[in-house]
Write a structure and sequence with these properties.
The complex is a heterodimer of chains A (283) and B (585). Chain A has 283 residues and is α/β, with parallel strands linked by helices. Chain A folds into two domains: 157 residues, 3-Layer(aba) Sandwich (D-Maltodextrin-Binding Protein, domain 2); 103 residues, Periplasmic binding protein-like II (D-Maltodextrin-Binding Protein, domain 2, 3-Layer(aba) Sandwich). Chain A contains nine helices and twelve strands. In chain A, the strands form two sheets. In chain A, strands 1, 4, 5, 6, 7, 8, 9, 10, 11 and 12 form a ten-stranded mixed sheet that branches. In chain A, strands 2-3 form a two-stranded antiparallel ribbon. In chain A, strand 8, helix 4 and strand 9 form a beta-alpha-beta unit. In chain A, helix 2 packs antiparallel against helix 8. With 585 residues, chain B is mostly beta strands. Chain B has one domain: Methanol Dehydrogenase, Chain A, CATH 2.140.10.10. Chain B is 6% helix and 36% strand. Chain B is built from six helices and 38 strands. Chain B has a five-stranded mixed sheet, with no helix packed on it. In chain B, strands 2-38-37-36 form a four-stranded antiparallel sheet, with no helix packed on it. The chains are: A alpha/beta (283), B mainly beta (585). Chains A and B meet through helix 3, strand 5, helix 4 and strand 9 of A and strand 28 and strand 29 of B.
Chain lengths: 283, 585
């Protein structure tokens, strides 16, 4: 149950060896990064976040982390559905999951490495300057919203529209299926089956930039909502594994410039959008 | 022996139903035993005065650790068991000492189906008909086996797990048709009941629970009793836009059949996957009951237990077919204990509600208007995001979930295993699916009034009142069995298998099995002529998933809120599937 690192992380790792061992003993699971391996659980088919070929942006950030730690990166693939944390982190087959909401109850999280919200996405040649849930055009345009897959639960855009009595012209996109929900919604803009898509920002940016038509992306903030409009996204570890969280926290801090470069490369909205989300309500 | 003859006469006289052809009174050919799903055994050897001496005759380990909800099926000296995922079927030879395995069949369902099923990877049983065994797999296949050899006759794939669709229910076989339905409404699965040709596995018809009349199989014979169910294409117009296409109303409960009326009866699940605010309207034909012809699937009537459901009150609970009163004046009814807290007595020819009696604590509604048929919702318990709504009773699993009740034509009582749970709905922490965060309306369940979490109740459908009830510490998640010996059997989640007096609920016998009991007890006559009682032990299901699925008791919202109300279950039982069979010495 000892942690063996290369010299790169020096003295700090000695403390980690002990703290990590006790946390793992508490959880009754193998300790993190045994033999210098960073074990990450990820969905094998969830672009742009993670894909089996390692080309998702969360894959890239996990690689950066492993490199900084001098650890070998090893994946355990599991579809991100009900029971994901239970079947991955809690089952002891890995120690890290990427891209979880900060302060999630299911895992222990690092400080966030990006912040995002949902975005209005529409074809610039069909819709002009739509920026608010209170725009009267939302009563007649066809709007796509993502659905969650839990009874009684909804995404912030779903609630924002429902509160305004906008329902008849709303088309729901279910979370499961063979094509990622963000891709299906952006493609629907191209096909003309919807006029506006409300898409989680990383999916909106990534898929919008891969279409031949110009997609306008505007942060969608419901200023009247009592619920979260922006989410901090972090790295998750098993509850109780405070040692690994501390290690990853320091690592993320060190590689922050590289992470931001990856986010930009994948068109995760930054810049103006980040300024909007900075003041938006969080969970 | 004289008692047995009398009992058999009483059964034949009182019930319109019969067990499936080719079986005898000592068999148990389908989970509900007969088409009426009475779960009444006409056997009388075991009775209230001798049941105290009941003891194990043999046991059998299924080798599977998840929740065991299936009924053992017994026909012609062989017992058939289907396990939870991976849905192994065992045939046990009851003619030999210790009932050795006669054959075993492994369908090898897709492993990814496990991540789709909402409430543990259960299976509610196989069905025997004309020398064949029919069952469903979690990954949406219906399979027919030769009952004597275990050889596969056909397998038909009916849905896609990649879309969130699973199958957990037990088929019913009627007039050469295998009736099966789907699960997964929370993922936007559109519910259906499908009839397959029992000989070939080919689809004969499919009736959807939402959408245009042509796809719901509503035609000229459709004559619902209430005005709110009359009109063209209500499965479209009672939804916003195209929401009906992903509207839920799955069909995962037990199906019953009245051969004289030639009608099937089954319930539809809650509307989904939207939250209630996103789907204004009655959301037909979810959270209700259909009566259909088995040959064509054509609907005769529908009634909606919970229009525009807001509390996850699936309407799938069983509809037990009984005759109220004697002789020519008998009224043919069905009895349905719903998740919304009312036990309904419904005229099964017309769909008219005769009575709707509370059998649990109810705060979400104030009653059922028998003129209009409408459930009267309590406005202060309507869930709203951003606010905490406390003391929602019943909780989401309802006053009773899937666990089937039994009816005795001798005592004329319905025996209902159920829970006593309420919940607070709170705006949750951030959660996510497929990388997409959201804020959910998460629930934390808690014990209902009295502090106990389960009840076992006897309901008198003639006088529409509870005759007696037993308080249980844990939710009673097992089915019920009643025998002509006037003994009722059920199990508890901490592993006790119990017998009580059918007349007054007096405890008569109990046995501690290896794991929590959430299965369906059955009774049969063995090849040796003796009466046996059989039950699968093996905790799990929605209520028991924190043990079978190794959930974390620190997360009160896990298992969709169940963990909060059962933090002690892990201390009270461990997982493991085992058959127990009991007999008199």
């Amino acid at each position: 149950m000892s942690l063996r690192f290369r010299e790169r992380d020096g003295v700090r790792l000695a403390a980690l060896v002990m703290a990590g061992a006790s946390a793992a003993a508490l959880a009754g699971l193998p300790s993190a990064m045994d033999s210098g391996v960073l074990r990450v659980c990820a969905d094998p088919d969830n672009a742009p976040f993670s894909t089996r070929d390692g080309s998702g942006f969360e894959n890239r950030i996990a690689s950066l982390m492993a490199d900084a730690l001098g650890a070998e990166l090893r994946y355990y693939w599991w579809p991100q559905r009900r029971g994901f944390v239970r079947n991955t982190l809690d089952a002891g087959v890995c120690d890290v999951v990427m891209g979880v909401p900060a302060h999630s109850e299911a895992v222990l999280t690092t400080p966030p490495y990006y912040r995002a919200g949902y975005m209005f996405a529409y074809r610039a040649d069909r819709v002009s300057a739509l920026t608010s849930y209170d725009d009267p055009r939302l009563r007649t345009l066809r709007i796509g919203v993502p659905l969650v897959g839990n009874d009684m639960a909804a995404t912030p855009p779903g609630n924002a529209l429902a509160h305004r009595g906008i329902a008849d012209n709303v088309i729901g996109y279910v979370p499961l299926g063979t094509v990622p929900v963000g891709q299906r919604m952006i493609e629907a803009l191209g096909e003309g089956t919807i006029d506006i898509a409300l898409v989680w920002a990383p999916q909106a940016g990534y898929f919008a930039h891969r279409e031949p038509f110009e997609v306008k992306l505007v942060p969608a903030i419901d200023t009247r909502a009592r619920e979260a409009q922006a989410f901090d996204m972090a790295v998750g570890v098993r509850r109780g594994d405070t040692a690994l969280r501390e290690t990853l926290t320091r690592t993320l801090e060190r590689i922050r410039p590289q992470i931001e470069a990856v986010l930009r490369e994948y068109d995760v909205p930054v810049g103006d959008a980040q300024r909007v989300w900075a003041s938006a309500r969080t969970p | 022996m004289r008692l047995a003859v009398l009992a058999a006469c009483a059964v034949a006289g009182a019930m319109a139903n019969a067990a499936s052809p080719g079986t005898n009174d000592g068999d148990w050919p389908m989970p509900g035993r007969d088409y009426a799903a009475t779960r009444f055994s006409p056997l009388t050897d075991i009775n209230a005065s001798n049941v105290a001496t009941l003891r194990p005759a043999f046991t059998f380990s299924t080798g599977v650790l998840r929740g065991h909800e299936a009924a053992p099926i017994v026909v012609n000296g062989t017992m058939y068991i289907v396990t939870p995922y991976p849905n192994i079927v065992y045939a046990l030879d009851l003619s030999k000492p210790g009932a050795p395995v006669k054959w075993k069949y492994e369908p090898h369902p897709s492993a990814s189906a496990q991540g789709v099923a909402c409430c543990d990877v259960v299976n509610r049983g196989a069905t025997w008909d004309s020398g064949r065994i029919f069952f469903n797999t979690l990954d949406d296949q219906t399979i027919a086996l030769d009952a004597s050899s275990g050889k596969q006759l056909w397998r038909t794939k009916l849905g896609e797990i990649s879309n969130g669709e699973t199958m957990t229910m037990a088929p019913l076989v009627v007039k050469g048709k295998v009736l099966v339905g789907n699960s997964g409404g929370e993922y936007g699965v559109r519910g259906w009941l499908t009839a397959l040709d029992a000989s070939t596995g080919k689809q004969v018809w499919r009736a959807y629970s939402t959408g245009p009349d042509s796809e719901v199989l509503i035609g000229s014979k459709f004559q619902p009793h209430y005005q709110s169910d009359k009109g063209k294409d209500l499965g479209v117009s009672t939804w916003p836009g195209t929401a009906w296409k992903i509207g839920g109303g799955t069909v995962w409960g037990f199906v019953t059949y009245d051969p004289q009326a030639d009608l099937l009866y089954y319930g539809t699940a809650n509307p989904g996957p939207w939250n209630p605010e996103q789907r204004p309207g009655d959301n037909k034909w979810t959270a209700g009951i259909f009566a259909r012809e088995p040959d064509t699937g054509e609907a005769h009537w529908f009634y909606q237990w919970s229009p525009h459901d807001m509390h996850d009150y699936d309407g799938i609970n069983e509809n037990i077919l009984i005759d109220l009163g004697d002789g020519a004046s008998a009224r043919k009814v069905l009895v349905h204990p719903d998740r919304n807290g009312y036990i309904y007595v419904v005229d099964r020819a017309s769909g008219q509600v005769i009575s709707a009696t509370p059998y649990a604590a109810i705060t979400t509604s104030t009653g059922v208007d028998l003129e209009t048929g409408k459930l009267k919702y309590a406005p202060d318990k309507i869930p709203k995001d951003g606010t905490v709504v406390r003391d929602i009773c019943p909780a989401s699993p309802g006053a009773k979930d899937w666990q089937p009740a039994a009816y005795s034509p001798r005592t004329k009582l319905v025996y209902i295993p159920h829970q006593n749970l309420c919940q607070d709905a709170v705006t949750s922490q951030a959660n996510y699916i497929s990388g997409t965060p959201y804020v959910g309306a998460e629930v934390r369940m808690k014990p209902g009034p009295g502090g106990h979490r389960g009840e076992f109740a006897a309901f008198d459908p003639v006088n529409a009142r509870i005759a007696w009830k037993i308080d249980e510490d844990l939710p009673v998640w097992s089915g019920a069995l009643v025998t002509a010996g006037d003994v009722v059997f059920y199990g508890t989640m901490d592993g006790w298998f119990k017998a009580v007096d059918a007349r007054d609920g007096k405890p008569l016998w109990q046995f501690k099995t290896g794991s929590g009991v959430i299965g369906q007890p059955v009774s049969y006559r063995g090849p040796d002529g003796k009466q046996y009682i059989a039950i699968l032990s093996g905790v799990g299901g929605w209520a028991g998933a924190l043990v079978s699925g190794d959930l974390d008791t620190r997360d009160g919202t896990a298992a969709l809120g169940f963990v909060n109300v059962l933090p002690d279950l892990k201390d009270k039982t461990t997982k493991g599937g085992m058959l127990y069979v009991f007999a008199l010495p």
